Amino acid sequence: MTEVSPSHRTEVPSGAMSGAIDQALYRQVMGHFPTGVVIVASPGPVGTAIGSFQSLSLDPPLVLFSITKTSSSWPKIRETGVFCVSVLAEDQEHVSRAFAQSGADKFAGLGYKPMASGSPRIDDCVAWIDCDISDVLDGGDHDIVIGAIREMAIERETKPLIFFRGGYGL
Ligand SMILES: Cc1cc2nc3c(=O)[nH]c(=O)nc-3n(C[C@H](O)[C@H](O)[C@H](O)COP(=O)(O)O)c2cc1C
Questions:
Q1: Which of 33, 39, 46, 48 to probe ligand 1 with, by most ligand atoms within 8 A of CB?
Q2: pLDDT tens-digit readout, 44-79
């Protein structure tokens, strides 16, 4: 087995490994996994910035994301039973910042268009996936939202926005 140098690990007091994981450590370590950024939006319009979006199943076609139970947008999204995912482009950092603010008028000054579900798709995104909420599972302090895909398309062939180590870009 290849020895990993201790200098490549985050130093953790030995006691921390046997019990609860420190929240700062969790954020720091998980922040080293790069993600794309999407806007999950529903009729209202209502929406939020999400990094936990991913593909789930090809047959049937499903996607998922997790959302904090304290999100003010989530009860409104859930109520509609539908959502559209807009994959943000590299030049849409300002959109991510706007949608990561709680309580703000996130759609002000933004171009968007309702999809078949009635959910808004953000203009100039890389790709979009229009969904029905098919299931909501418990995920600790988050809910895991499963979406059954109605329609999807690539909108703009350009580089996606990346979130890594607490900032935008690699
Ligand atoms: C890059 C990025 C990724 C995020 N990913 C998630 C996520 O996967 N789940 C989540 O609940 N919040 C995530 N957030 C935080 C939410 O966007 C933020 O808490 C939320 O928009 C607050 O507004 P709300 O109360 O209207 O939901 C992310 C924020 C950013 C900037």
A1: 48
A2: 999 999 999 999 999 999 999 999 999 999 999 999
